[in-house]
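anyone seen this seq b4? input:
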Amino acid sequence: MQYGKLFPWFSCPRFIMKRRRIYPSEDISKISVSHRLLLWSGVMRRLWLYMFNKKYIKENASKCQGECLRCGACCKLAFRKCPYLTFEANGKSACTKYNIFRTPNCVVFPIDHRDIRERDIISKTPCGYSFQEQGNETAA
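predicted toks r here
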């Protein structure tokens, strides 16, 4: 089922991604308004999927490969910087609320390849996660 047909705002990020080149920026304040809208629509998409389509999340979890490199880029998708994000002396990120409470976006990130693509707007460093072939997608 294609969510873009039922909910037009789900197709908006793909339009922005196709029309604009993405230039990763280490300075989050330099991200354009259209990219910021794209990132917020990704947050809303993940929340929607978490609440109403856990089957899709479980299907994609089996396609996800790799592990978190703790770069902290995904913690900057919704805000300039998550208030719970800290950096250790070795440069690795850490969440002060990891074992206490995490938002749905943090729990399920990344759901699919779009999340990795949105994360790449924030950081030049490659993400530790990747997904298998994208050609056989039927949902979202």
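The beta strands are 64-66, 85-87, 93-95, 129-131. Helices lie at 3-6, 12-19, 33-52, 54-61, 104-108, 113-122. kinda curious what u guys think
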